[in-house]
Amino acid sequence: MKVKLFCIVAILFTSLSFAQGTKTISGTVVDPNNVPLPGAEVKIVGKEIYDVTDFDGNFTLENVETGDVFRITFLGFKAKEVTITESNDYPVTLEESASELEQVVVVGYGTQRKQDLTGSISRIDAEAITQQPATTATQSIQGKAAGVQITPSGAPGSSPDVFIRGLGTAFGGQDPLYVVDGILTDNIDNINPNDITNIDILKDASSLAIYGNRGANGVIIVSTKKGKAGALTIDIDGYYGFKSELEKVDMADSRSFAIYSNEALGNPDRFDSNQEYNTDWFDEITRTGSVRNINMALSAGGEDVRTFFSAGFYEEEGILKDNDFNRLTLRSNTDFDISDKITFSQQVSAALSNESPKGFGVFNTAYKQAPIVPVRYLTGPYAGQYGVSADEVGSYNNVGNPVRDLNYDNQKEKNLRLQGTFTFDYEIADWISFTSRFGIETEYFRRRRFTNNLELFLTGDPTRTRDQYSSEAPKTSLVVRKEDSYKWVYDNFVTLNQTLNELHNFKLTLGTTVEERGGDFLEGTRRNVPVGSDYWSLNNGDAEPQEVENLKDNTVRLRSYFARMNYDYDGKYLFTGTYRRDGSSQFQEGKKYGDFFSFGLGWVISEEAFLQDSDVISFLKLRGSYGELGNQNVPLNILTFSTDLNYPFGPGQSINEGGTINELIDPELSWETTEEYDIGLEFGFLDNKLSGEIDYYNRLNRDAILPVELPDAFGFSGTTLTPAGQVRNEGLEISLNWSDDIGEDFSYQVGGNITFNRNELEKVTNPFFAENLGGSIGNGQITKKVVEGEPLGSFWLLDVTGVDENGEFIYDDVNDDGNIDDDDKKFFGSYAPKNFYGINLSAKYLNWDFNLDAYGNYGNVVYNGKKAQRFGGENIEQAVFDNRWTAQNPSNTEPAPSNDVPLSSSYFLESGDFFRINNITVGYTIPFAEDSFIKDARIYATAQNPFISQDFSGFTPELPGNPLELAGVELNAYPAVQSYLIGLNIGL
């Protein structure tokens, strides 16, 4: 009996002890503003006990013990660990993540913590995007990510050139791939920057291989805002400002022009130095521009539905007269919780833009036209190249009147782009989920161009009369162009997450994607349409002849399969493997499919025992990767058939219609293939106050498309494109950031990045390679050449070594044959910089905030094409006049006045180095009571591009364009602009 009683007591005591040791706790997770955070994961460390917060941020954990630690994680916030005590109630406030290492980045078909990455990805958040107001977000991120070179244009509504880790292709498309909420697109010009949550830039093969033959030029992933649970919130943002040219070229005045021209003509009496007119042509075609922007965003949500809606209107008047642009954007993003395991989301946007484009050639015309010519004669007509009065017939230059050209340039463009993404997510089990996503984009473009041919004829020469105008020629003409395009993508993939023995963490993504894109255009022309703009329609004008051109673009279809596995052991040792198989209708049979892959390794050294207690090293990770990518943006692999080759045949020599194939398509033509090595070191010191990243990359495009000239025996003329080159980009990226708080009232951040890149056409594999010439400046001179051993876009010029006793250039006769020709030309480097860098500073003190961004580059050259494009009688820069060679004041470096067409030479080549302040913003947040209708308001002032230090004598050293043509050549370039803005943000 005693034994039985002892056993019963022991069992009861054990049960009682167990009951007292385990319990159920609950709590609420909120952000610093006390807003509940639904969807946060709460997990007991080391145990399979977890919960996810509901709509109100509540969670419950059962069978926990005193002393257990639970960890709360939520996207965009710092993870937090809480030790369980005797209490059963745990209110938790999460802090927003200030460390880049804690960020969760988008990696393509999924997300991943930055500290777990084995690839190189840069993230730019919403604050960094919107602190520099711009038409597109791409312009705002210049200098904010290492390895990303952005070359903007000052023109309203323009798209900047974007190169990620250098230029890897000569004739394939150079632009990166943009992914907006799952939609694959060509640019983000239609996205309101205020709608963006963050931008993730994928740079190396380990992160890019998931996009296969679309990823060789880099991928920019844009995530837009979503609705938040809670009461309705309204945010209103607006700014207004003025724009002007950043740098103005000092042109010769009338007196200087007259003296220079007389010396060039060898006739001291041709022009009187006291001229009646002294026209500043640049001032005549420009104005003080303006910019205004207003955005409104609404966010609200219940337990099952959360929605975000925004509307924005942007309007800009360019510094070029009548060059206007405006854009209306609308966005609706909604998330639906259909059940605990099924969610559905939609992101739909529309962007309608209107533009009055103007030909930028008027800047070149204004540069060259003589100041002694008035805008109009006293009798009324436009002046031009025919002298200072309507009675003077002899011309002394062939330059037109830029004011006339501008006023008769009547163009209107309208563009509507619609985008939509629809995503279905199903959590099959705790460890496996399925995603189905469909994205579609359609674009409708319209252009209308009216030309008053009669007026152009009359104003081109003051001696002309209406009777001289041909009766057969149209007095006016109207061209209307319509372009429609579409693209859609359908993704299906599963994601598996599994942890074994609490040490081995696996994440596997398997999926397939299908794409299609196509379009067409229709262009019609009508003659003798009435002059009034209300009548500019194809329904008006002469019925005959009608000119119509219609073309349907080739439909391109892609089908792809992809897989990615992420593995880490105890958060220390990382592995990522990616595979993608792409098939494209772009290429011939046998070349349609390609296989692309990558793998990456990482070692989180700071997780090792010997560093875990370090007071200095907060985070340290070494990583490396290798992969192969593709670029399918190569010229279409289709033969063209030339007709109208009529020929006489037979005894009667009757005319027969003929045709031929005059091109040859290489059957090996397929996508360009790129292979890349990347080694990176990521670090954080002093509790991550100092953080940074160093990356070395080596990227080889081994199938670069190049032109070849086949021997005549093949029976074809011209060039043929074929995989014939190897282009290498090798570089180093360094990013550093320091952030700290001083007391409770002051915080600051200092950051910067620098990129070193070396570009070279390393090898040409085809013996018939045609060394491509380019960079024509329109006076019979070219400036560039593609050749083995030189960077793409290299300048190929004669070398000016001095000036002789007659004031003429002395050129280096390289081959000593006594003749100066193409055989004496040298290479002088590329317009692409060897180094570019960005600097950013920010600070907050009480309710004040300050931000400064700067950008610069060095190690490149640019060509002053305006200065070099002479035919005779054009104006010159004041510095050319002041420093010119004369018998009384000879020079060893500056030539004597001349009206000869100058040879393309190093004289016109200048340094492209510059340093510019991109943005200075000072803001003040107005405090309001908690129960006030207005929750917060901030007023700010911004100076954009207020200062530049440049060696180039032209308008701007940033000259976008085709790398093998006029990129880096200032000829018809839009000047850089500066803006001063006042803005207001209001939260309701």
UniProtKB/TrEMBL annotation:
Domain TonB-dependent receptor plug: 114-219
Domain TonB-dependent receptor-like beta-barrel: 382-945
Membrane topology: Multi-pass membrane protein
Cleaved signal peptide residues: 1-19
Pfam families (alphabetical): CarbopepD_reg_2, Plug, TonB_dep_Rec_b-barrel
Compartments, as annotated in UniProt: Cell outer membrane
InterPro entries: Beta-barrel_TonB (IPR000531), Beta-barrel_TonB_sf (IPR036942), CarboxyPept-like_regulatory (IPR008969), Plug_dom (IPR012910), Plug_dom_sf (IPR037066), TonB-dep_OMP_SusC/RagA (IPR023996), TonB-dep_OMP_SusC/RagA_CS (IPR023997), TonB-dep_rcpt-like (IPR039426)
Key words, A-Z: Cell outer membrane, Membrane, Signal, TonB box, Transmembrane, Transmembrane beta strand, Transport
Family listed: Belongs to the TonB-dependent receptor family.
Classification via NCBIfam families: OMP_RagA_SusC (TIGR04056), SusC_RagA_signa (TIGR04057)
Protein name, UniProt field: SusC/RagA family TonB-linked outer membrane protein
